[in-house]
Design goal:
Layout: E1 9-13, H1 17-29, E2 33-37, H2 40-49, E3 54-58, H3 66-75, E4 84-88, H4 93-101, E5 106-109, H5 114-186, H6 192-213, H7 216-222, H8 225-235, H9 240-247, H10 251-264, H11 274-279
Parallel strand pairs: 1-2, 1-3, 3-4, 4-5
Helix pairs in contact: 5-6, 8-10, 9-10
């Protein structure tokens, strides 16, 4: 990254007016916009009202020092990503370590060398801008993905609903129109070949009907509301007496409902447990 870049907004925080003048003159001569604050409280007010793109922060200041101010800046959601370069007259290792621990991105020792300062300022501002641009792109892509997923969910839900409605229509037509007509036809005078065809037709229609009934919503079409309650309790493993007590019905009534459920679900194998069959749906 070069020392030449478009103008950036820099906030200098230093209690020394001469240092503010020196840094400000150097930066403005190279196209940067500079604001300044002589103490931490003033710096916080300026930064929170209009965040800069970089802080040049002195360590030793009256009241809140640079380390504590950096901690406060990092607590603010709008300021926490703005790079902080510490500018100090101290070269002690513990000062440098502390600067990075509180969130600083760089540490410049006074006296200031113009080329070094400009290079570091430009590098960190450019990195900050690249990161912000990347965040914007990620947010935009995330919104696109979320919108696509939402559209897919809506489409899938609609397709599922359309499929269920189609299955319901088919089941209703088979059970209420086609099978009854075929059964009436079965009772008419037919030769052996015709009867065989009708028998095969009815068997195939009932097989299709039974496969559609495996859908729980279609199952509800076949059963009355009370039968659905009984079926759900059977599925939970409840016995006849328990179901009768829960629904405030007689044992005989529950037994009748069980028989009706088996008949409507076309369960012909008496050895097949109704609980096992319902649990498989």
């Amino acid at each position: 990254m070069s020392t030449a870049m478009t103008s950036s907004d820099i906030l200098i925080i230093d209690d020394n007016p001469d240092m503010i003048h020196l840094l400000g003159k150097l930066l403005t001569e190279h196209g940067h916009q500079v604001r300044a604050a002589k103490d931490s409280d003033k710096a916080l007010k300026i930064a929170t009202s209009n965040p800069p793109e970089l802080f040049l922060l002195d360590i030793e200041m009256p009241g809140m020092d640079g380390f504590d101010l950096c901690v406060e800046l990092k607590k603010n959601e709008e300021l926490q990503d703005v790079p902080v370069i510490f500018v100090s007259g101290h070269e002690q290792q513990d000062h440098k370590i502390r600067a990075f621990e509180v969130g600083g991105v760089d540490y410049i020792v006074k006296p200031i060398h113009a080329g070094e300062l400009l290079s570091r300022v430009n590098n960190h501002v450019e990195l900050y801008r690249l990161r912000k641009d990347l965040e914007v792109q990620v947010e935009a892509k995330t919104r696109e993905v979320e919108e696509t997923l939402t559209a897919l969910r809506v489409l899938m839900t609609q397709q599922q609903q359309d499929s269920k409605e189609a299955e319901k229509t088919i089941l209703n037509n088979i059970n209420n129109l086609v099978i009854p007509y075929a059964e009436r036809l079965q009772k008419t005078t037919l030769n052996e070949h015709q009867r065989s065809i009708v028998d095969m037709l009815i068997a195939n229609l009932k097989q299709v009907s039974e496969s559609l009934i495996n859908n729980h919503e279609l199952l509800e079409m076949k059963l009355t509301p009370v039968e659905i309650q009984v079926a759900n309790l059977i599925k939970e493993g409840k016995q006849t007496k328990e179901i009768a007590s829960l629904l405030n019905l007689s044992d005989l009534t529950i037994s009748t409902h069980r028989k009706n459920i088996r008949r409507k679900l076309n369960i012909k194998d008496r050895k097949l447990s109704l609980n096992a069959y319902l649990s498989s749906l």
